[in-house]
Design goal:
By secondary structure, this protein is of the alpha/beta class. The protein has a single domain, classed as NAD(P)-binding Rossmann-like Domain (Rossmann fold, 3-Layer(aba) Sandwich), CATH 3.40.50. The protein is built from 7 helices and 7 strands, in the order E-H-E-H-E-H-E-H-E-H-E-H-H-E. It has helices at about 20-30, 40-50, 70-80, 105-135, 155-175, 195-200, 210-220, and strands at about 10-15, 35-40, 60, 85-90, 135-140, 180-185, 230-235. Strand 1, helix 1 and strand 2 form a beta-alpha-beta unit. Helix 1 packs across helix 7 (about 210-220), helix 3 runs parallel beside helix 4 (about 105-135) and helix 4 (about 105-135) packs parallel to helix 5 (about 155-175). The protein is globular and about 50 Å long. The protein binds NADP nicotinamide-adenine-dinucleotide phosphate. NADP nicotinamide-adenine-dinucleotide phosphate binds next to helix 1 and helix 6. NADP nicotinamide-adenine-dinucleotide phosphate binds near residues 16, 66, 92 and 95.
Length: about 240
């Protein structure tokens, strides 16, 4: 086990989801103390059990990450326990597609903005304050290729992810020179269990694995990436 993150404290929002779980596991494997947010208790318990010996460095917080007061409390709890927050990864998000703009229900548009944009807003606000006080830290927000590649039937999703990229880009400008780095990654389709179930006839071989994308997330949160700030990095391989 490499100990690149030993003594470091990382918050992974959506840390029990398809990509978030791969990132949380990789951080644990590399020695970090990891706090994950979750909503689904059985998913959290399954993840905690799978962490085996690493579970002593894992904590879970059941929270809706669009609730600003609740997220602020989570960050306060992390700081109370560890007195530092080295990285925050936002892997919360949702997809809706297949309907044209005028066919889609407006509540779906609002849901996309909530989960893909407000989540990053709330989490970044809470994390960046602690990081600015420390004079160091890394934020990685998970957007999507759709932020730039605006397909038919994906108006709400594409708009929410594009806005998230813009927001993180502006945040990167806000914190320039502070020691805090802010970046975005742009996955296309990921080889998750949920995607395999939804598209059983697809060729999975070209879909990037969550573990491969997690490696990029860890790199961005590591000191090796100290010169990367304000980037939106494609992580879609050949897909
Ligand atoms: N999968 C893909 O092909 C793909 C492609 C491009 C971009 N992305 C982006 O990559 C990120 C991760 O995707 P994924 O496939 O890992 O998704 P996922 O498996 O659905 O995981 C998302 C996680 O976020 C949690 N979550 C959702 N709403 C929340 C809220 N309000 N508060 C707290 N937690 C909440 C979910 O918890 P619950 O299960 O309890 O709801 C879940 O654990 C997302 O931003 C997604 O848009 C994914």
């Amino acid at each position: 086990m490499s100990a690149r993150f030993e003594g470091r404290v990382v918050l992974v929002a959506g840390g029990t989801g398809g990509l978030g779980r791969a990132a949380s596991s990789a951080f644990l494997d590399e020695g970090a103390d990891v706090a994950v947010t979750y909503r689904n208790q059985p998913e959290w318990e399954a993840f905690q059990n799978s962490a085996s010996a690493n579970a002593v460095r894992l904590q879970g917080h059941e929270v809706d990450v669009t609730d600003e007061a609740a997220v602020t409390r989570v960050v306060e709890k992390i700081l109370l326990k560890h007195d530092r927050l080295d990285a925050m990864v936002n892997a919360v998000g949702a997809y809706a597609g297949g309907l044209k703009l005028w066919e889609m229900e407006t509540k779906v548009f609002e849901q996309m903005l909530h989960l893909n944009l407000r989540s990053g807003y709330v989490l970044s606000r809470a994390a960046v304050r602690a990081m600015l006080r420390q004079g160091r830290g890394a934020i990685v927000n998970v957007a999507a290729k759709a932020a730039f590649d605006h397909a038919a039937g994906a108006s709400a999703y594409a708009a929410s992810k594009a806005a998230a990229v813009a927001m993180l880009d502006a945040l990167a400008a806000d914190v320039k020179g502070s020691g805090v780095r802010v970046n975005t990654i742009l996955p296309s389709i990921i080889d998750t269990e949920a995607n395999r179930k939804a598209m059983p006839k697809a060729d999975f071989s070209k879909w990037p694995k969550p573990q491969d994308i997690a490696r990029v997330i860890l790199f961005l949160c590591s000191d090796d990436a100290k010169v990367i700030h304000g980037a939106a990095i494609p992580v879609y391989g050949d897909s």
